């Protein structure tokens, strides 16, 4: 692609004289952190949570953790996700728990405690897929 001299001058000078743009603290935090979306497919349940070592994961307290998002439910399976903003290099520990829709019984995933370490450099949303072990 070719640009005329006047177009290049405009682009250069326009960039140099542009007013600073204010960025909200939430946008700045997301830009500095790694956005990691944890995904898991399990049988249907009435309540499904990712519980773990962060305040947003309830600090290991199932009742304090936020519900995971139901992304899709087809047939007898449901697809859940939970998005976290993690500082680069941060390691978290977590596990999954659910309440069965048919029996009302609570169960932890049999895999037990899991861990995840965010990469040192993040340029896009990271999708991390787990599987439920009955």
How do the strands and helices of this protein lay out in sequence?
Blueprint: H1 5-17, H2 25-32, E1 34-43, E2 45-52, E3 69-74, E4 77-86, E5 91-100, E6 106-108, E7 114-117, E8 126-131
Parallel strand pairs: 1-8
Antiparallel strand pairs: 1-4, 2-5, 3-4, 5-6, 5-7
Please supply descriptive tags for the structure shown above.
8 strands; disordered N terminus; polysaccharide degradation; globular; 134 residues; Immunoglobulin-like; 4-stranded mixed β-sheet; Carb-bd-like_fold; carbohydrate metabolism; alpha+beta
Brief rundown of the structure:
It is built from two helices and eight strands; from the N terminus they run H-H-E-E-E-E-E-E-E-E. It has helices at about 5-15, 25-30; strands at about 35-45, 45-50, 70-75, 75-85, 90-100, 105-110, 115, 125-130. It starts with a helix and ends with a strand.
